[in-house]
Amino acid sequence: QVQLVESGGGLVQAGGSLRLSCAASGRTFSRYTTGWFRQAPGKEREFVGAISSTSGRTNYADSVKGRFTISRDNANNMVYLQMNSPKPADTAVYYCAADVDSSLLISTIASRYDYWGQGTQVTVSS
Asked: Per 3-state DSSP, what percentage of the chain is helix, strand, and coil (rounded to 5)?
């Protein structure tokens, strides 16, 4: 199995910056698309962005496009979510997830992902 552990969450002021990390186990992790999702209380888990394996292709939700950046370091089994200029609306629990499907399409649907981290809380203050 692939095990994922998020870190880097916490309290940040609006307009600041924060970087979330996702550490993965297993050498096969580098073959998987890795997504970032978030969930606020009372809401469904929503897609934030994702990055493919070796191609480095990315996809972002419109709500974060231009502010958040996803990158990966396959040599160290790490994926990052750089959050620039976060807003209070970005407050949520953030999860990283791995999709073992080799499709060229990066899925934005949470149910398509096979492995999930435990989540890390991000709170953005005004």
From this structure: 10, 50, 40
